[in-house]
Design brief:
Layout: H1 3-10, H2 14-22, E1 30-31, E2 38-39, H3 43-56, H4 61-69, H5 74-87, H6 92-103, E3 118-122, E4 127-136, H7 141-157, E5 160-162, E6 167-171, E7 176-185, E8 209-217, E9 241-244, E10 254-257, E11 260-264, E12 269-279, E13 282-289, E14 301-309, H8 315-318, E15 336-344, E16 364-369, E17 375-379, E18 382-384, E19 390-393, E20 396-399, E21 404-413, E22 416-423, H9 426-429, E23 436-442
Antiparallel strand pairs: 1-2, 3-4, 4-7, 5-7, 6-7, 8-9, 8-14, 10-11, 11-12, 12-13, 13-14, 15-16, 15-23, 16-17, 17-18, 19-20, 20-21, 21-22, 22-23
Helix pairs in contact: 3-6, 5-6
Length: 445
């Protein structure tokens, strides 16, 4: 579910959830390659409840982070709790509840109240028709919209995915109707997505140019309102732009051929079918988005793009470039080997003892800074070196192959050196976003 839906379900402000992510307490379960949107799972509702319960015991966010990080070390956890218990006698009741919670078998989502949903029918493909609350006839438009929102929230809470527009069930003979929708059940775990995207190129002149993201929708029908106007979406990253280059030329994670947008993000690859429609004077593209739900056994959502122009851009024209022609200045502190420690979205998220991402999800692995600007780096399974490809000078890693200058800073905390370096990915070079950062520590092995 999206961060707004997760915030509503847990009763936590979005700003607090973002702060928990920054502090390494609760990171999104998945970040969509395509729309850039953050997703949380229903399992994380219990994590929020655990964090709030620990806070009620007077524990600091650092203590809570340490407890969550060492959740299997009962002795470590008990030591923190007993120390806090001795310091805050007036919090004995809350601490006792925390201890009970930490050392007894957890029950998932016990504080989330759920209304009953009725399964009208289920077919061999796992598709179900779900009906929600009853509404009196004649229908009140505001009540109908509220019923749809309520049903959507309950569908997501139950770990389903809505795969149809909203319908009604019942009739005048009963003096009431029910809002219904088709759904499928989602798995708790995410699968991998590696499709063969090597199709023979076929041209489609109508798609060439720049497109902006309108939003992500559960189904195409959600884009159209009853008044015949486009319906705004609160899903998806609306700041993102996507280019269709002549000849299907690839850039970043995108390329295309007639009927398909091709995505190759390294950790996943897929073909996303598209359709073009002209509507109210604008041209829209409806693209299959094989994202969070799809990776959990669901169906593609719909990402809607609006055409901005029909310019025949080149790859170099749309790229954001830095000056990499800098003279070499030595920096003795940076010499040697460094291994990846963490990935953060902004400089302020850096916390010396926190990993926002587990090591296996860090694609940038290793760097060796040698004399006279020599630089060797390992990204995933690929090793890169050679001064014509990349080099370094004091304060910067210079990637000549993609024209980016990534500033680095070395900070020392408790005797440990950390290198915080800009990671100017496709989001920076083509998506118009600010840089992300990798954090490295010295590799003395």
């Amino acid at each position: 579910m999206k961060i707004g839906e997760f915030a509503k379900m847990t009763g936590m402000p979005i700003s607090v959830l973002r702060h928990y992510d920054k502090e390494g307490l609760l990171c999104p379960d998945y970040v969509d390659h395509f729309s850039g949107y953050r997703h949380y799972s229903t399992d994380q509702i219990g994590q929020v409840q655990k964090i709030e319960l620990l806070k009620s015991g007077g524990l600091s966010l650092k203590e809570i982070r340490d407890i969550l990080k060492n959740s299997n070390d009962n002795e470590f956890i008990m030591g923190i709790l007993e120390q806090r218990e001795s310091e805050y006698r007036n919090m004995l009741a809350a601490i006792a509840e925390v201890k009970r919670m930490m050392f007894e078998k957890e029950e998932k989502n016990t504080k989330v109240e759920q209304e009953a949903l009725s399964v009208v029918e289920e077919n061999a493909f796992g598709e179900m028709l779900i009906k929600g609350m009853s509404l009196p006839i004649p229908l009140n438009p505001k009540a109908l919209q509220a019923a749809r929102c309520s049903l959507d929230e309950e569908i997501q809470r139950r770990n389903f995915q809505r795969i149809s527009g909203f319908m009604t069930y019942g009739g005048k003979d009963k003096n009431e109707i029910q809002v219904v929708a088709e759904v499928v059940k989602l798995r708790d775990e995410m699968g991998e997505l590696h499709e063969d995207i090597n199709l023979i190129f076929e041209d489609d002149e109508q798609v060439i140019g720049k497109w902006k993201v309108v939003g992500e929708y559960a189904v195409k029908e959600d884009f159209y309102s009853e008044q015949g106007e486009r319906r705004e979406s609160d899903m998806g990253n609306k700041d993102r732009e996507i280019y269709f280059l002549p000849g299907g030329e690839d850039y970043w994670i995108y390329s295309w051929t007639k009927g398909y947008l091709k995505l190759d993000g390294g950790d996943q690859s897929c073909l996303c079918r598209y359709q073009i429609e002209d509507y109210q004077g604008s041209r829209y593209m409806f693209v299959e988005n094989k994202s969070y739900e799809y990776l959990r056994g669901g169906r593609p959502t719909v990402l809607v793009l609006e055409q901005v122009d029909k310019n025949r851009y080149t790859k170099r024209e749309i790229a954001r470039e830095d000056d990499t022609d800098m003279p070499f200045v030595n920096d003795g502190r940076v010499l040697g080997d460094w291994k990846a420690f963490d990935f953060i979205r902004n400089r302020e998220e850096f916390v010396p003892d926190v990993n926002h991402l587990p090591q296996e999800r860090l694609f940038f692995k290793h760097m060796h800074f040698g004399e006279e600007g020599f630089l060797l780096s390992v990204y995933m399974d690929e090793t890169t070196s050679g001064k014509e490809i990349q080099s370094w000078t004091k304060g910067y890693v210079l990637k000549h192959y993609n024209h980016t200058a990534c500033a680095y800073e070395i900070v020392t905390v408790d005797g440990m050196d950390y290198m915080i370096i800009e990671w100017k990915s496709g989001d920076y070079r083509w998506g118009g976003h600010d840089t992300d950062y990798y954090v490295f520590i010295r590799d003395n092995v």
